[in-house]
Every structure is written in structure tokens, then in C-alpha cells.
Amino acid sequence: MILISHRGNISGKILDMENNPYYIDTAIFLGYDVEIDIWAIDNKIFLGHDIPQYEINLNWVDKRKDKLWIHCKNLYILEIFSIFSYELNYFWHETDTITLTSKGYIWAHTGKQPIKNSIAVLPGVDEDINYCIGICSDNINNFKHE
Predict the structure, then answer these.
(1) What is the DSSP-derived secondary structure letter of residue 126?
(2) Which residue in 43, 72, 101, 108 is a FRET match for 116, CA 20 to 30 A apart?
(3) Helices in the chain by DSSP H: which ranges?
(4) Do residues 12 and 139 make contact, with C-beta atoms less than 8 angstroms apart?
(5) How far does Cα 63 stand from its chain's mean position?
(6) Which domains, ranges and CATH numbers included, belong to the chain?
(7) Chain-centre distance of CA 102, in angstroms?
(8) Dihedral through CA 50, CA 135, CA 100, CA 19, nearest 10?
(9) pLDDT digits 0-9 by tens, 85-114
(10) Strand-strand pairing, 54-56 and 68-72
């Protein structure tokens, strides 16, 4: 089972820390993959959910590429990744509850399970996640020993 920390959260939401590079590195150090939100604005790369907050660079992303699930927050970063990076696992969605990542994973939000070979994103308590190959959660530590 692939265990994915949602924006760096492990044992509950900490809004002030989400997408913080240090917070993300902590989750990776603890053995989790991490879903991040990434923007490109004026030739700069940023992490942040609703707004670009933490400036990073493509080298930062490249060093962590095997552990990142990248939510492209604007079309500019999607274009950059689609042209220059075949090794990253990234996706784009706005109001869609299901999308495919660049590596072919089904990324499915709450209420859409069971879907075979999918990633259950923020699964609900009553959701059947037995067919999933991964889970993305703010409380991913709860799934560590399942």
C-alpha cells in the first residue's frame, strides 16, 4: 500500500505547515510519499495550496521526485512539467473528483471508492478502500500498520 501524506500532514491537519518544504521533508524522512501543491509564476516555482507561499526550484523537486505526488495548481507549471519532465508524477484538476496522474494512477477523492488500483484521496470513514493501491490522507499515520 502506498501511503501518501496530504501536503505533509501525518497525524491531522496543520494548516500553517501545509506545503512547507521542511514539513514535506519530515514526512518523507518518516517514510511517506507526499502530495504537494505547486505553482509557477514569473519563472519562479512555489509550494502552496490556495496561494503560492514557499519558493522552491526544480532541483528541490527533482531531489524528491520519487516521493512526490504533484498537484499542479496553475497551467503554467503543468506546461513546464509536460514538456520537460517525464519522471515526475503530477496531475491537474479543479473540481474533478477523479483524475489521472502523469504516471497513470487514478487519483480519486472522497466518496468515489471502491476503484481498483486507485489512490483514495481523503477517504471517508465508510469508504471501501480494499481495492486501492494507495491512500492520501491528513492522518496517514493511522494507515501505517493496516
Answers:
(1) T
(2) 72
(3) 21-29, 58-63, 75-84
(4) yes
(5) 16
(6) 2-143 (3.20.20.190)
(7) 12
(8) 30
(9) 778 999 999 888 899 999 999 999 988 988
(10) unpaired
